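Data deposition worksheet. Section B asks for the primary sequence of the deposited chain exactly as it was used as input, without tags or linkers unless they were present during the calculation. Section C holds the resulting structure in token form. Section D is free text for depositor observations; keep each observation to a single sentence. Incomplete worksheets are returned to the depositor.
Section A, Depositor: J.P.
Section B:
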Amino acid sequence: VERVQDTYAECFAMSYARLIVTAADSYWLAMAAGEFCGYGTSVIACDAECGVDEPVEASLTPDGRGGVALMAYGFSPEQLAKSVANRVGQCLMTCPTTAVFNGHPSTDRAPLGDRLRYFGDGFQKSKKLGERRFWRIPVMDGEFVVEGTIGIGSGVAGGNFIIQSSDSANALAAARTAVAAISKVPGCITPFPGGIARSGSKVGSRYQNLKASTAEAFCPSLRGRVESKLHDNAGAAYEIVIDGRDERTVRTAMRNGIHAALNSESGVAILAISAGNYGGKLGKYQIPLRSLFDG
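Section C:
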């Protein structure tokens, strides 16, 4: 824990949706998840931050097939609802054998199947089970079943920590171990490629039209030209960003990820664990890294 720096991760509130996607087998589940989550890393430029939450057993899905829970985060419920509907329509309705259901308990609802049903061109049919309405849209392998509405609630985004090592190989190996540990925490995602970002960012830029730019304080090639936040011997740093359903979930994911990284085979090569923060400019949640290991 002495290698964990006395700093904090700055997080912020974002709206999120959770979908349950089922398919005929694991291959098409993987294809569906990959397509839905594509171009879903950061709301700096993407319409949503997306990732896989956890697998869902067949006994827990509405159609009795194996599934996967996907999460999507956006700045507002309205913007997120549009993004999710677009991604479901383009990436999941097109994917062979899939069906899509709501996986969020929130009573604040947004249209999903109610919006996508028009693709059925008048041939779509609805079915109500209890209080839940589903749409059956005819497609070329049968029907695409999609829930009429989804729940949208408020979550916490931007939890993060930064792994520093003398070389990229050890830093990356430790980061992969951390992401694997985080993936076992339900209710959160790591939206960047493989859960890892090499292009950490800061709020603002010297260029007027950019709302974010490179975190130069963590770039090894700029040491000596800027005020560095890197360990003196660090040659590479990787950031893991976490979005979760609440602050407690994000804290748990951060703690488990840091612990796994430090205790991995490459853990001995970790020089420091830091985090990104912006002096309160980004969000109201501040998670001190060392507080994760109190008690």
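Section D:
The longest helix spans residues 77-92.
The chain has a mean pLDDT of 96.
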